[in-house]
Design a protein that fits this description.
The chain has 118 residues and is mostly helical. It has 6 helices and 2 strands; from the N terminus they run ααααααββ. The mean pLDDT is 85.
Length: 118
Amino acid sequence: MYATISEFITADERDALKESEVGERLHPIIELFLREDGKSQQATNTQRALKQISSADEQWLDKLKPRLLRPNAIEAASALSELRAYGSLLEAGYRVIPIATDPIKPTPDFTISDGGGE
């Protein structure tokens, strides 16, 4: 189980992201590490989501991780949004079921159920 962002993203992975930065914008993961002390709402929400998913579906986190570590900031930001959405739904008491992606057509990231249906 991952209790912190630092446990989920290793120092070596973080260093690789720092080296791959292009342009003036920081990689979204690097921005999180700069805010990991909880001084930003984004870092706090990501941390909470990570804990929720880690205890419910660590395998999903491991599948998401390569997208988080891509040098493409848009892809990484999208993956962070999925992580926060999944964690928030779990925290709200929903049953979350990830959906396999389709390379040909857009698919939702997951379905949810509150026990009464999807």
